[in-house]
Amino acid sequence: MESANHSVVSEFILLGLSKSQNLQILFFVGFSVVYAGIVLGNLLILVTVTFDSHLHTPMYFLLINLSCIDMILASFATPKMIMDFLRKQKTISWWGCYSQMFFMHLLGGTEMMLLVAMAIDRYVAICKPLHYMTIMSPRVLVGLLLSSYAVGFVHSSSQMAFMLHLPFCGPSVVDSFFCDLPLVIKLACEDTYLLQLLVIADSGLLSLICFLLLLVSYVVIIYSVRHRAAGGSAKAFSTLSAHITVVTLFFAPCVFIYVWPFSRYSVDKILSVFYTIFTPLLNPIIYTLRNQEVKAAIKRIRTRHINSKHTL
């Protein structure tokens, strides 16, 4: 038998970012450029790491997985949002809404754990450099990657399982450009207090705890780096600053949104845009413009490409 939520509400209406027609045209152009930048920037990292043997290290193995997740995270809602700027009626089916929530929490939870894995990698590389390749073996890397996806799956499934049984009888208006869990839960036709607590405990505390653990780990690493030689310290600080910037940009909006998701104020759309769209755009910029190894690898690949054309 089909569940009650399907018999009453078959689709949701997304209010988007603005009702102004002029702004929507501006947003269409702007976000189209941003999305193209996300795809091209992360593809650049994937191609560079794949085709340059100097980057076949544990750190860059984790980085290309982060780029893959960022591209998918930006793609679960951004293309629809861009097309919705040209539509008067912005609707999404119930299953489409459910899929957006599932994949957002799957990828978000996976990225959180992947950032923790990258912090572990930096700790070993900086604090135990002589044993780095032994400790961060291929088996350990695959284990960290699979663990990240497993945590993301459990994190998402534990919340989505309850959503399947929630009745929705109207209204069906979501005040955002995609289906976000706290906003959709508020539309249910029954008391969702316990489910709200689950979201806070699951999403909010997971974000907050991971963020605090990462900050503590970076403090430990920085303390260790201060006792190194000047040259090694400069390189370590450069790498750490990139990681800390990425962690802050990703976690700060998540903590704000999911630790206090059911206050009398609506979820901040700017923060939602930031962690679903701008963070995947900034990651490749941070890891290329501030990373000398990646920039050198891009030059080597470009030089090889030019030389190969000359030999033909």
TrEMBL record:
<keyword id="KW-0812">Transmembrane</keyword>
<feature type="transmembrane region" description="Helical">
    <location>
        <begin position="98"/>
        <end position="120"/>
    </location>
</feature>
<feature type="transmembrane region" description="Helical">
    <location>
        <begin position="204"/>
        <end position="225"/>
    </location>
</feature>
<comment type="similarity">
    <text>Belongs to the G-protein coupled receptor 1 family.</text>
</comment>
<feature type="transmembrane region" description="Helical">
    <location>
        <begin position="25"/>
        <end position="47"/>
    </location>
</feature>
<feature type="domain" description="G-protein coupled receptors family 1 profile">
    <location>
        <begin position="41"/>
        <end position="287"/>
    </location>
</feature>
<feature type="transmembrane region" description="Helical">
    <location>
        <begin position="237"/>
        <end position="260"/>
    </location>
</feature>
<dbReference type="Pfam" id="PF13853">
    <property type="entry name" value="7tm_4"/>
</dbReference>
<protein>
    <recommendedName>
        <fullName>Olfactory receptor</fullName>
    </recommendedName>
</protein>
<dbReference type="InterPro" id="IPR050427">
    <property type="entry name" value="Olfactory_Receptors"/>
</dbReference>
<dbReference type="GO" id="GO:0005886">
    <property type="term" value="C:plasma membrane"/>
</dbReference>
<keyword id="KW-1015">Disulfide bond</keyword>
<keyword id="KW-1003">Cell membrane</keyword>
<dbReference type="GO" id="GO:0004930">
    <property type="term" value="F:G protein-coupled receptor activity"/>
</dbReference>
<feature type="transmembrane region" description="Helical">
    <location>
        <begin position="140"/>
        <end position="158"/>
    </location>
</feature>
<dbReference type="InterPro" id="IPR017452">
    <property type="entry name" value="GPCR_Rhodpsn_7TM"/>
</dbReference>
<keyword id="KW-1133">Transmembrane helix</keyword>
<keyword id="KW-0472">Membrane</keyword>
<comment type="function">
    <text>Putative odorant or sperm cell receptor.</text>
</comment>
<feature type="transmembrane region" description="Helical">
    <location>
        <begin position="59"/>
        <end position="78"/>
    </location>
</feature>
<feature type="transmembrane region" description="Helical">
    <location>
        <begin position="272"/>
        <end position="290"/>
    </location>
</feature>
<dbReference type="GO" id="GO:0004984">
    <property type="term" value="F:olfactory receptor activity"/>
</dbReference>
<keyword id="KW-0675">Receptor</keyword>
<keyword id="KW-0297">G-protein coupled receptor</keyword>
<keyword id="KW-0716">Sensory transduction</keyword>
<keyword id="KW-0807">Transducer</keyword>
<dbReference type="InterPro" id="IPR000725">
    <property type="entry name" value="Olfact_rcpt"/>
</dbReference>
<keyword id="KW-0552">Olfaction</keyword>
<dbReference type="InterPro" id="IPR000276">
    <property type="entry name" value="GPCR_Rhodpsn"/>
</dbReference>
